[in-house]
Amino acid sequence: MAELMRSVGLVGEKSTLVCEHNVAPHVPRFSTPSMISLMEQASLVALEGHLTLEQT
């Protein structure tokens, strides 16, 4: 397995609009699963160029 080349302070940015598709059904707020998905997407952006195809 290849060594992951990562650096302290990598930054990834992703944005979304809060709408009826990503709010919690019981409160009109951004849902936790939507927030976690957005953080995962930002992490992928931060790691872009630092992963091999086998690591994605």
Provide keyphrases for this structure.
56 residues; mainly alpha; 0% strand; elongated
Description:
- There is one protein chain.
- The chain is mainly alpha-helical.
- It is built from one helix and no strands.
- The model has no long low-confidence stretch (mean pLDDT 86).
State mean pLDDT (0 to 100 scale): 86
The DSSP helix count reads 1
What fraction of the residues are assigned to beta strands by DSSP? under 5%
Shape call: elongated
Instruction: Tell me the series of helices and strands, N- to C-terminal.
Output: H
- The Rg value, from CA coordinates, equals 15 Å
Main sheet properties:
none
Q: What is the topological layout?
A:
Layout: H1 32-47
Question: What is the structure about, briefly put?
Answer:
With 56 residues, the protein is an all-alpha fold. Helix content is 29%, strand content 0%.
